[in-house]
From TrEMBL:
Source lineage: Bacteria, Pseudomonadati, Campylobacterota, Epsilonproteobacteria, Campylobacterales
Sequence ranges assigned to domain EAL in this UniProt record: 1-210
Coiled coil spans: none
Name of this chain's protein: EAL domain-containing protein
InterPro entries (alphabetical): dGMP_Pdiesterase_EAL/HD-GYP, EAL_dom, EAL_sf, HDOD, RNase_Y/CdgJ
Transmembrane segments: none
Highest taxon listed in the record's lineage: Bacteria
Organism: Sulfurimonas crateris
Domain called HDOD: residue spans: 205-385
Pfam families (alphabetical): EAL (PF00563)
Length: 403
């Protein structure tokens, strides 16, 4: 089980109404961390959690969230999975504003994301540093502790009444609040108004699995090829493996120029099947993953062969999905709710019912007959503990007095 510690602090508008939360992610030692490729596993874990159902529990259904971003998270596509209508990308004050980073900020802005500047100290140096970005910034978080009062007033005069909103950051006392309220800020944040609350969120064991399942849902929902390309780019490893698979395919003898080209030439059905193979073979950490992959493939192909012409593709998917619980260490019902697949597939996976149930039962019977035979032939080679694990995992109670 992976646990993420998240500090959330309220941000209020000038009518003292809750406007947003600032989210700060903590590592195992409760030190602040962020979206960074240097801590890729943590980044994926954070993203998988804040894009799940936990988000509404954390924030409510409509409140915005500010999240800190640096140059790495902007350039590497880690943020692509975030909902642009829920998140404000908070640019850190020490960010390296090179040309590539600026280009990425403009790109995200064109996609509809909102940006804020963190700990803006109102100095001439800070204004000069971010001058090129002001056309893309929505909120400036003006640090009232770090800012000289005369500089604060100059920045207020420059931006007040413009498209850019101003937030008074680090309001520590009642006097602070009264003072800066008179200056006419749009938003307020600080310990006087709200002290950060640290909460725990349980993250998925393998966030990449959920991202792949989301992609499968996008394919099934018939979204545009552009959306498919955009989503796949979020996972560099996935993009690489897809291009590698495509290059190794003898069917296509073309030079790859883009992911769009790969998706178009492969077609959605082939892409969907490849993703399921990737899910079993690449993402699974199960030591028996190769055997499970072979079993899943054979089961899917059998069910496809037995289905009528109209339902062959669906039968194949049903067969592959029927073994997902073997690679996910989580409730299979939660997974199926997450991606909301076709009702016939969902019915089979969750209840072993529906039009594909007879085919699945037949396939499982053949699988078990073979496994029974091989277990009996090799029973003396099996470890006692492995047998106990297998029995208890399958819900078979072991009489401990006879061990």
């Amino acid at each position: 089980m992976n646990i993420i510690n998240i500090s959330k602090q309220k941000i209020f508008d000038n009518k003292n109404q809750l406007f947003a939360y600032e989210l700060v992610f903590k590592d195992s030692s409760l030190e602040p961390t962020g979206f960074s490729t240097k801590i890729r596993a943590t980044s994926q874990l954070i993203i998988s959690s804040i894009t799940s159902n936990e988000l509404d529990k954390l924030l409510g259904s409509k409140v915005l969230a500010f999240v800190n971003v640096d140059e790495e998270s902007l350039q590497k596509g880690i943020l692509d999975v975030l909902d642009k209508d829920r998140f404000v990308l908070n640019i850190l004050e020490d960010i390296d504003l090179n040309e590539k980073v600026i280009a990425k900020i403009i790109q995200y802005k064109k996609r509809g994301f909102r940006f804020s500047l963190e700990h803006f100290d109102s100095s001439a140096e800070m204004i000069k540093k971010f001058n090129r970005l002001f056309n893309y910034i929505d909120i400036i978080k003006m640090d009232v502790v770090l800012s000289l009062h005369e500089n604060l007033e100059k920045v207020m005069e420059k931006f007040k009444g413009s498209r850019i909103k101003l937030l008074a950051q680090n309001i520590e006392t009642k006097e602070d609040y009264q003072k800066y309220s008179k200056m006419g800020f749009d938003y307020y944040q600080g310990y006087y108004l709200d002290k950060p609350e640290v909460i725990e969120i349980i993250g998925s064991k393998e966030p990449a699995q959920f991202i792949i399942l989301q992609l499968i849902k996008i394919i099934k929902d018939n979204n545009s090829t552009e959306q498919l390309e955009f989503f796949i780019k979020k996972q560099p490893d996935l993009s690489y493996k897809l291009v590698q698979f495509f290059n190794n395919s003898k069917k296509f003898n073309v030079k790859i120029e883009s992911l769009m080209q790969v998706i178009t030439l492969m077609g959605r059905d082939k892409l969907l099947r490849w993703l399921l193979l990737y899910l079993y073979s690449e993402v699974s950490k199960n030591p028996a993953s190769k055997t499970i992959l072979a079993l899943a493939l054979r089961r899917a192909e059998k069910m496809e062969a037995e289905a009528d012409r109209v339902n062959k593709d669906k039968a194949y998917l049903a067969g592959m999905f029927s073994m997902l619980s073997s690679i996910f260490e989580t409730d299979i019902k939660e997974l199926m709710n997450h991606i909301q697949m076709d009702k016939d597939i969902t019915s089979l996976v969750l209840e072993r019912k529906g039009i594909f149930a007879p085919s699945l039962i037949k396939a499982e019977k053949e699988e078990k007959e073979y496994l029974r035979q091989i277990m009996l032939e090799n029973f003396d080679k099996l470890h006692t503990t492995d047998l106990i694990y297998t029995l208890e995992y399958g819900g078979v109670e072991v009489d401990k007095s006879k061990l």
